[in-house]
Amino acid sequence: MFATWLSVVTICMLGAMTPGPTLAVVLRHTLAGGRSRGCVAGIAHSVGIGLYAFLAMSGLAVLITASPSVFQTFQWAGALYLVWLGIKGLMASPSQHNELADPGTSRSAARDGFLIAFLNPKIAVFLIALFSQVVGTDTTLLEKTIYASTAWLIDMMWYLLVAWLFSSQRWLESLRRKAIWFERIFGLVLLALAARLIIETLK
Fold it and tell me: Do residues 31 and 182 make contact, with C-beta atoms less than 8 angstroms apart?
């Protein structure tokens, strides 16, 4: 089991570290609200990952991926949410010292972090593909729980690390004075990711 678990750890680490919309969202909230807000976004995202991990283990996530209409509904909802976040970033207005006039709240950080995961059915596909390689008829409930918990914990630890690294007080204040430009850059990145997702959905 230990060798199998190490395989799960390695694959989940590579998946978590792959740049995508989550990284942009966590960085955005870290920049706007500091370490605690970035951590909230990261933890909320990991809750979505954990939810899909346990659903994949129970087989319920197969229903999402097996039904084209349900899968596309999630894809479109996710793409539209990225579009909304991107437009919101581009339309952000500056206050004094070029900081954000509306830096958001911990609640918005939790919402964004969770929905970025929950509205991405490809996470379910990834986890089903992963767990199908390591789970067999002889896999115990405890082992399944450990594998699913591993996916959840690795995602959470990675984004907590991201929030911690990018919230150093030595240069966070300097970055915040340029927050409006970072917000607009994040907006462009999220719109680009949404466009790619929409193109993939239309294929």
Answer: yes
In Å, what is the CA distance from 88 to each residue of 83, 134, 142, 143, 199? 8, 41, 43, 42, 21
pLDDT of residue 172: 62
Q: Averaged over 96-119, what is the pLDDT?
A: 79
Residue at 1 is within a domain: no
Q: Which amino acid is at 167?
A: S
Residue 31: predicted pLDDT:
84
Domain membership of residue 48 as a residue range:
21-202
Using 50, 70 and 90 to split pLDDT, how confident is the model at 43? very high
Report if residue 88 sits inside a domain.
Answer: yes
Give dist(CA 134, CA 151) in Å, integer.
13
User: Is 12 among the domain residues?
Assistant: no
pLDDT at residue 96 in the model: 54
Q: Output the CA–CA distances (angstroms, integers) from residue 155 to 12, 15, 36, 48, in the order listed.
A: 8, 9, 17, 10
Residue 97 lies in a domain: yes
Task: Please classify residue 83 by burial: count the beta carbons closer than 10 Å to its beta carbon, then call 0-12 exposed, 13-18 middle and 19+ buried.
Answer: middle
